[in-house]
Amino acid sequence: MAIESTMLPLGTTAPPFTLPNPATGTTVSLDDLTGPALVVTFICNHCPYVQHVAAALAELGRDLADQGVPMVAISSNDVVTYPQDGPEQMVAEAQRQGWTFPYLYDETQDVARAFSAACTPDTFVFDAKRRLVYRGQLDDSRPKNGLPVTATDVRSAVEAVLAGRPVDPDQRPSIGCGIKWR
Questions:
Q1: Taking a C-beta distance cutoff of 8 angstroms, is the pair 42, 76 a contact?
Q2: Torsion of CA 159, 161, 166, 168, to 10 degrees
Q3: For the Thioredoxin domain, which residue ranges apply (predicted)?
Q4: CATH 3.30.420.40 fits 2-178, yes or no
Q5: Which of these, 144, 150, 157, lies nearest to 40 by C-alpha position?
Q6: What is the mean pLDDT of the segment spanning 29-47?
Q7: Residue 110 φ/ψ region, left for φ over 0, alpha for ψ in the -120 to 50 degree band, beta for the rest
Q8: Are the C-beta atoms of 75 and 43 separated by less than 8 Å?
Q9: φ and ψ at 48, to 5 degrees?
Q10: How far apart are CA 116 and CA 1, in angstroms?
């Protein structure tokens, strides 16, 4: 069943985290992610909403890296109930989709709770001071609605941050599969 993101208040400071990156065997922390903006998106392997935007996430990650903007994805699903979202499967999915950004594993689900993440995908954009300037949908595309996946909403937020302009506060929640809580 599809649910909407909870829309964490704008201006919220990015919650600190240190999570494993199953692809490299290292950890990535918020402090490692330096740049003029930061994109954090909660995803998982099996969600049809994530599968719908997977190629656009790959392109977005590459484009942001070219601009010096770090992006990370985090999987917080309960892997006991959803083993297809486990760390080994995350590595395979990232390779299959061409994701070049770190895809981190939130085994305790503490990071998802700290972000008030509710669904997959659920995307957050922070400015250089790591204050939340955007949260919600990538764009208006949904499975079966026929609209192209462009990540326009997230791209516009990042462009505003990079240009020193305020991000449009009229933001729409993401819609996707609910995070699979323990």
A1: yes
A2: 50
A3: 8-163
A4: no
A5: 157
A6: 97
A7: alpha
A8: yes
A9: -65, -25
A10: 18
